[in-house]
UniProtKB/TrEMBL annotation, chains A, B:
Transmembrane segments: none annotated. Catalyzes the ATP-dependent conversion of 5-aminoimidazole ribonucleotide (AIR) and HCO(3)(-) to N5-carboxyaminoimidazole ribonucleotide (N5-CAIR). It holds the Pfam family RS_preATP-grasp-like. This is N5-carboxyaminoimidazole ribonucleotide synthase. Keywords: ATP-binding, Ligase, Nucleotide-binding, Purine biosynthesis. It comes from Micromonospora carbonacea. GO terms for cellular component: cytosol. Belongs to the PurK/PurT family. One of its GO terms (biological process) is 'de novo' IMP biosynthetic process. It comes from the Bacteria. Its EC number is 6.3.4.18. GO terms for molecular function: 5-(carboxyamino)imidazole ribonucleotide synthase activity; ATP binding; metal ion binding; phosphoribosylaminoimidazole carboxylase activity. Pathway: Purine metabolism; IMP biosynthesis via de novo pathway; 5-amino-1-(5-phospho-D-ribosyl)imidazole-4-carboxylate from 5-amino-1-(5-phospho-D-ribosyl)imidazole (N5-CAIR route): step 1/2.
Amino acid sequence: MVGGGQLARMTHQAAIALGQSLRVLAQAPDDGAALVAADVQYGDHTDLAALRTFAKGCDVVTFDHEHVPTEHIRALAAEGVKLFPPADALLHAQDKRVMRERLGELGAPNPAWRPVADPADLVAFGDAQGWPVVLKAARGGYDGRGVWPVDDAAQAAELAATLLAGGTRLIVEERVALRRELAVQVARSPFGQVAAYPVVETVQVGGICVEVLAPAPGLPEELAVAAQQLAIDLATALGVVGLLAVELFETPAGLVVNELAMRPHNSGHWTIEGARTSQFEQHLRAVLDYPMGDTSLAAPVVVMANVLGGQPGGISIDERLHHLFAAEPGAKVHLYGKQVRPGRKIGHVTVLGDDLTDVRARAARAAHWLTEGTPA
Amino acid sequence: MVGGGQLARMTHQAAIALGQSLRVLAQAPDDGAALVAADVQYGDHTDLAALRTFAKGCDVVTFDHEHVPTEHIRALAAEGVKLFPPADALLHAQDKRVMRERLGELGAPNPAWRPVADPADLVAFGDAQGWPVVLKAARGGYDGRGVWPVDDAAQAAELAATLLAGGTRLIVEERVALRRELAVQVARSPFGQVAAYPVVETVQVGGICVEVLAPAPGLPEELAVAAQQLAIDLATALGVVGLLAVELFETPAGLVVNELAMRPHNSGHWTIEGARTSQFEQHLRAVLDYPMGDTSLAAPVVVMANVLGGQPGGISIDERLHHLFAAEPGAKVHLYGKQVRPGRKIGHVTVLGDDLTDVRARAARAAHWLTEGTPA
């Protein structure tokens, strides 16, 4: 797996059960996966030579992020390296413009959008669709970065000029009237088998996912099935191998695709305990061309809460764990071995149960202990 | 963790979630845990110098087997190393004579037994209790080794003479009229908190555990509670820190203690998916003095089947996994990274569900695919 973050860390846990040991291409010894994996190489994921050395002897190469240059993936594939997802699929998770164009061709539900090659494009779009609109970098954004809400034509012209001058490729999207955000994950094998997880609700604060509710509360069955079918169709049409996460806006007019990710995804961390097959095992099964695992829920209600780094000071992480475990013996904790920085994702907690209000409160309390070191 | 086998391998998986990385003292690079852990040292667990080097910088030292000499544990503890379980507790899992004596003092249910210092002791015991009897090495036995059924006085005299001449310390026990074997696990922290898992049935073939049924089918509630209470009382009386597995015989006269283990145990592998807290996480929580995790069942019925190495030849383990995953998408597989040898434990599978007959058949089919490479 190229990338040594928490996704590789948790994929290594799943690999162990399958009798494997994940080889990780990390950047530094304190990367989350480098701290725990036996087979770690160091190098930059934008360095073709490092990628080539890394790939030697791997059965298959996969990714913990979208930042490996497409041309490197193509070059390695041409040399006979097996990489999943393939470059032609991954491009749709790397480049929002490519994604929007392809979704349009496939008839998948896009918001109104257009490429922005000139500030005038943005102003014209906003004037036509109504302000505010959402300006996005085509590449490189995550966790709210690379996304700019734009309120009016004056702000639009200045911001777009600055970004375009800096070489940022841009698209603009309408600001959809969203009720809430949903996500659906599927895994697809080279053989073509696709397995879908239940649709979840993702709760974002400041562009960062803080909470995932599985299954999405009160989602009508026909919408859930439509979302799963959409993800299955996209995985198949794009030739995804491995996981595909489809982030969705639920709007009064129906579902709209927000983003795609082709790797284990924060919206799927709940599956470690909450589904019969975790997303990490499923991703490995998919890229190894094994048959897919059972995606059913392990409890009626599953809530995952991210643990963000809090302000410096206060009691140690170790003491926080003590308090959390005493307060919530059933909370499942996953810490990523990262240095704490305010707002940084340093772990997550998952709680299973029968009652959404109760389970959600328990997950929030558990995450609060780890973030703040105080009772909620 | 001293010892690099599958117990350390699975403990490492649990340590990752807690934000830790397990340091392992392994014997060889192909030990199950050495294949997957980041922090591996090599050395013999009977070498005090190797143990001393290993313990430097560890928060706490614990064990994946019972074979570390008691005097070494005492020596390290005297030097200020924190080791759990402590030597005085672990001795009862290392030495069956010490265990039987202490259980007798505590009023715990022993079979009839006595030490055998001379062949005549064995003959006298058999003549008094009735043949056959079971001769056991006080130290070093596992998976059926170090246990000899003895049918009559003639065989007894010859076998005991041979073993005693070889320096083996011996005890003899009556052959109990067992209905089945049960096991109960508890974890105890230095603070003194104890948490008990549900009582399970263990199915043995040739002295090797092949199947664990959780909870033990049809076990009367009062017997289950009595078994849990017995394990809690023993953990407390012996000063165990970490896991204690109490292996029990269910007899017409009630429960009888067979053996003790103070580490993650084969009878608890079902807890990885089948309980809210796995035995591996629970052991870490206990030795780190964290509050204990929820031990409740994750499904009404959980069955664990061991995967033993089959005869050489046939399809590869990788192909076997393909067939198993296609046949049983819900089976959870744990492979230990070991070379296959006939009869060697190379992994296990766990199946969760509602109906014992169905779940048991599915687990057996899954294990059969991995052992034999053919449909059951």
